[in-house]
Amino acid sequence: MTKHLISLAAMLALAAPLAAQEEPQGAPSPNEIVEQASAEEWIAIPAEDLLVMTLAPAADGSARKVVIQLMSAPFSQGWVENIRTLARAQWYDDIAVNRVQDNYVVQWGDPNYDNPESEGAAKPLPDGLRVVGENEYVANVIDDDLLARHRYADPYSGWTTFIEGWAVGSKQESLHSLEYQAWPVHCYGMVGVGRNYSPDTGSGAELYTVIGHAPRHLDRNIALVGRIVEGMEHLSSLPRGTGALGFYSAEETDKRTPILSIRAASDLPEGERPAFEYLSTDSETFARYANARANRRDPFFIVPAGGADICNIPVPVRRAGE
Amino acid sequence: MTKHLISLAAMLALAAPLAAQEEPQGAPSPNEIVEQASAEEWIAIPAEDLLVMTLAPAADGSARKVVIQLMSAPFSQGWVENIRTLARAQWYDDIAVNRVQDNYVVQWGDPNYDNPESEGAAKPLPDGLRVVGENEYVANVIDDDLLARHRYADPYSGWTTFIEGWAVGSKQESLHSLEYQAWPVHCYGMVGVGRNYSPDTGSGAELYTVIGHAPRHLDRNIALVGRIVEGMEHLSSLPRGTGALGFYSAEETDKRTPILSIRAASDLPEGERPAFEYLSTDSETFARYANARANRRDPFFIVPAGGADICNIPVPVRRAGE
């Protein structure tokens, strides 16, 4: 009986344990490798880098919370600071998800902003927001470990790598230099700042997340400020908008999902603060995990791919203490 | 007024027309290039290669139809034939979507198959299904145009290309050979055949589609049989399952979406047959489109990527006569 249940679940197997005597020969899966990581290989995410976004409850009354990890230095810090300012001013309270475009993005903000139907009703932005421009889409990095790093061939930017838990595209200044340019890349679940045509028009008041295949053409063209580490399914499963670019049309504004609040975890009472950690991308376990993502040798697989694109090597993140 | 509406819509601009006097300078977007294709560059999809899957109506009563284009020769034809046999036998009627795993797949089949809770209630399969194995995951192709083809560097398989409207990974037999191995790749919206551990266990009765970042590690490990050309949003927005691998758990079987029927378009009355066409991947317009996907020069963009992975160059498909 157990055999049959597992057998169904294993159809597109990820990490399905079989009864020992039936287990096909094979190496551990990527998830099994991560489970074997030592406690020291996990790095705590600071509370000020976590945002809790509370959506209105679902139709069945169940709660919908989304946790976002903000990008760490040296990337996008101007926008990250703006987002902290907006959260602390409670500016995000009572905005909404206004756009859901299939295989692209979910976007949330003030539905009255830039909207001719309700001009004048837009919320004023708080004081203290910085104007951040295209020069901050890319960071200059000097890195003594550069030559030791795992680098991945990439059709977009020559090569990609991981820096402190983030997938980045990069360009070396010269062959023997330890200096390079790096920028975060648009993988599934990454969070970015909506903007208008001019690159400095995104304040952080309008945000989006990727819900489809990595739209890497947006890299270096728009600011990434973080990623969703819990509750992604509350956004990715929202009904698609039928207006231009997946915005909800005037006939379907009732499909907008209200956002009750967005708070920095560090501003929440201690008992309500979520705690998360990520697997160090410099750890030995991460290297084994990434290798296994690129070369699946666990039982289901016949032909290892021999490579992977960086967005198919998601950085493991989990609740602390699990 | 118009300006402001467009301005919101352009935040992550794809192809937003601005009033002429306001239009920033720039090249046409990929979608604008496709709109300029000549009628001869579009290729009709045969009715026997289209499946219409009718889901139960949505909660608001609206119809949900999904159209699948089956893979053309030389790829996966054993499974494609099985799927036609299953559709003609009306075997798919009253099965269900049983699995929705975020950033991975939606999977449908007989919920009683391989299920210890309801063993014995599984539908018997029709006669005439072939057992197809791993030797058909890859096709050998001899192609006089090989050296003229657009090829894309790829971290998985060395290079990728398009053959008759399908994205494929490939491996040349030798540098000067016109013979190569090719296989379809797992992009967003591709449809494949669920299987058990043994590679020849997928009949075509259990199917899945990709709803996240391309899981290219599945290439050459599982059969791809087509892609969704309309109605993808009815699958990608379904509630995620909370059981192992995204299967709906025993407590949430009410979330399964019933499938009323799957029919080959060629078996439908003539007035009900959908008609679709795809942009020839050998056409000049497709080459311009692919180049623009890899190097966005339309107004929103600052830095062209300089490349793209093949799953970020979706083949344009549209209803015929539009």
From TrEMBL, chains A, B:
Give the keywords, sorted: Isomerase, Rotamase, Signal
**Could you tell me the superkingdom of the organism this chain comes from?**
Bacteria
Which top class of enzyme applies to this chain? isomerase
Q: Does the keyword Signal apply?
A: yes
Provide the leader sequence positions: 1-22
Q: Which Pfam families match?
A: Pro_isomerase
User: Which InterPro entries would you find in this protein's record?
Assistant: Cyclophilin-like_dom_sf (IPR029000), Cyclophilin-type_PPIase_dom (IPR002130), E_coli_cyclophilin_A-like (IPR044665)
The molecular function terms of the Gene Ontology recorded here are:
peptidyl-prolyl cis-trans isomerase activity
The residues covered by the PPIase cyclophilin-type domain are 80-242
Q: Under which EC number(s) is this enzyme classified?
A: 5.2.1.8
Q: Which PANTHER family match?
A: PEPTIDYL-PROLYL CIS-TRANS ISOMERASE CYP38, CHLOROPLASTIC (PTHR43246)
Q: What's this protein's name?
A: peptidylprolyl isomerase
Taxonomic source organism: Qipengyuania gaetbuli
Organism taxonomic ancestry: Bacteria, Pseudomonadati, Pseudomonadota, Alphaproteobacteria, Sphingomonadales
